[in-house]
Specification:
Number of strands: 0
CATH topology of the largest domain: Arc Repressor Mutant, subunit A
Number of domains: 2
Structural class: mainly alpha
CATH class of the largest domain: Mainly Alpha
Radius of gyration: 24 Å
Largest sheet: none
């Protein structure tokens, strides 16, 4: 007969969570298999993987990664694309002069 009262909740260390995430991110390894091997629910592992992607799961000694505003990143990507385009045009222009 089940015991009355609150259910025991297991808390896992950041090291354990990160190890589980690393295992589950290996090529050819399924989240379900890792969860079963570690005796945790697959949903919990999926949540840890999401926290890791978002930068919220890290070791206590690791500082949080600052997030750059999206607009700044978009401007930087455009600047790099323009630079790449200019260099390509310059290269193609010098190639055309050699063929003449």
């Amino acid at each position: 007969m089940p015991r009355a009262g609150p259910k025991k909740v297991q808390e896992y260390s950041a090291e354990f969570k990160l190890a589980a995430v690393r295992l589950s991110r290996q090529r050819g390894v399924q989240v379900q298999a890792v969860a079963a091997a570690l005796d945790i629910h697959p949903f919990m592992l999926s949540r840890w993987r999401k926290e890791f992607r978002e930068g919220r799961l890290r070791l206590p000694s690791q500082p949080a990664r600052p997030r750059a505003p999206k607009a700044r990143l978009v401007r930087e990507i455009r600047r790099l694309q323009e630079l790449e385009r200019a260099r390509l045009e310059q290269f193609l222009g010098t190639q055309g002069n050699i063929a003449s």
